[in-house]
User: Fold Cytochrome protein from Lentithecium fluviatile CBS 122367.
Amino acid sequence: MSFVILRSVVLPAVFLLAVVYCFSLTIYRMYFSPIAKFPGTKLAAITHWYQKYFDLVAKRHGGQFLWEIKRMHEKYGPVVRITPDELHIDDPEYWYEVYCNNSSTRPIDKQEKLRYRFGVPDAIFSTPDGEQHRSRRQAMAGFFSKQRLRTSQDRVNQLIERVSHRISTEYAGSDRVLDLGDMFSCLAVDIVTELCFRRCTNCTEAPDFKAPLVGVTANTLWISHWNAYFRFLQAWIDWLPVNVVATLLPLVKPVLDLRVSIKQQVGEILSDMNKSSFGPKETRGTDHATIFDDILASNLPTHELSFDRLTQEAFALTSAGMETVKSTMVMGIFHCLEQPAVLARLKAELTDSIPVPNTIPSWVELEKLPYLTAVINESLRLGFGSVQRSPRINRLHALQYKQWVIPPGTAVGMDSYHMHTNPHIFPDPFVFRPERWLHDPKGPDGRRPLTNYLTTFGAGSRICIAMHLAYMELFVTLATVLRRHEFQLFETDRSDVEFALEMLAPMPRWGSRGVRVKVDR
Ligand code: HEM
Assistant:
C-alpha cells in the first residue's frame, strides 16, 4: 500500500469511524443507557475522562473526584450518575441496602475494572465475583476472629514495648523530632507480618523509623488511580525485568522490592510447611499458625492455593494493614495533643485503669474504657478509612431507592466521607469531639446506635476482614503510648491531618510533612 493511499483513504476512514463511534456512544450513554434517566453532570454521564480528570490531574495532583461528587449531590439531589456506568448515593439510611444485602440468592459483586489497581487481582480485596469472594474470604476469616486474636496479644505487646522503649531512650528529653506517621507505619507492618506470616519485618528497628517498606505503601497509593485506569502500566511493570523498571520508574522501585521480599517470604513459608508436614505435628512451626495454615487447610480448590495467589493475598494484607492503622493512630494523637481537655480526660481514665504504667492491660479490659473507646471512634470517623467509594453491583436484582428503580448490573457506591460529615448524624462534623460517642448515643431516628453510621471499616460481606485486629492495635497502642509518654506537636497543624487528597486512602495536603512531635517523657 503506498503512502498516498494510506494518507488519502485509510487515515480519513479510520478518523471517520472513530467520530461515528464516539458520536454513537455519546447518544447511547445520554439517551439509551439503563441509567440514562438518573440526574448528574452530562459530561460525567458521557465519558469516563470526566472522573479521570479529577482523579489524575485536577488541582495538579488529582485526588479530587470525591469533592466533585459532593458538588453533584448539592446540585442534583441524593442520587447522581457520576460516570457512564455508576451511580452514587448520599443518604446514610440507604447504606445497608447497598452493602449488606449479600446472600447466595442476591450475590453482590465489585466492578471488574477495579481489580487491577493494586496489582493483586486475585486477592479477596480485588475479587469482583460475589460467590468467589465468599469462598476465598471464608478461608481466611477464622484467622481474624476476635477469639483467635486475643491469644496473640502478647506478640503485639512485645512490638509496642519495643516502640515505647525507643521513644524513652532515643527521643525523650532530647531535641530529636519523632515522625508519628513513620513510627506507627513501622509498628503496623510489623504487627501484620508477625501475626499473619510469623515473619516480622522488624521495621520498628529502623533508624528514625524510616524503614524503606513504609514509604512503599504511600507510593502504591499515589499510583492507585493510574493503575486503575491504565492497566497496561501494571502489566508492563510485571513483564519487564525488575532492574529495568527500577531504572525507568524509580518511584515504583520500593513497591517492586516489597513484592520480591513477600514472594520470597511466601516461598520460604510454604516450603517450611511442606517440610514440617512430614514430621510430627508439634514440630510444625514454633508458636502459632500463619494465615497460610488457615488457607491451606480450607476447602478452597487446589488452583486457589497457587503460590501466585497466596503471594497476592500476603501483599494485600501487608499493604491494607499499614496506612489505615497508621493514619487512625496519627489522627487520634494529633487531636489529643491539639485539645488539652481531651488529652487530660483520656489520661485521667488511663491513669485510673493502668496504675502501673509499665504494664499493658489486656485488650478486653481496654475495650471497657468509655473515653478511650470514644477517642478511637472519633479518630476512625475523621480518618474515614479507605475513603474512596467501593461500588457494589447487584447482578440479579433491581434496587429501589425512593422513586428510582436502579436496574440490575448497575454499580452503586457510597462512601464514608459523605456519611461521616453528614451534619444530621454528626453535628459539627469536622470537629474532633469524642464526647459524641459517650452514653450509648443513637442515630437520627433515636433507635439505631450511632456506631451504625461509623462506616470506616466498610460493611456487609466485604467489611474489613481484619477489623478486630485493627481495633486491638488501636486500643493497645494508644493506651500504652498515651499512658507512658508526653508529646508536644512540632511544626504541625491541622492541615497535616485534614483530608485534602483522595488517593483511595485520605491524604492531607500535598507537601505535608506529616505529624511530628518532640517527646518530653
Ligand atoms: C483502621 C484500620 C483499617 C481500616 C479503616 C480498614 C478499612 C477497610 C475497608 C473500608 C474495607 C472494605 C473495602 C471495600 O468495601 O471494598 C477493608 C477491607 C479489607 N481490609 Fe481493612 N482496614 C483496616 C485495617 C486492616 C488491616 C490491619 C488489615 C490486614 C491485616 C486489613 C485488611 C483488609 C482486607 C484483606 C480487606 C478485604 C476484605 C474483603 O474484601 O473481604 N485491613 N478494610
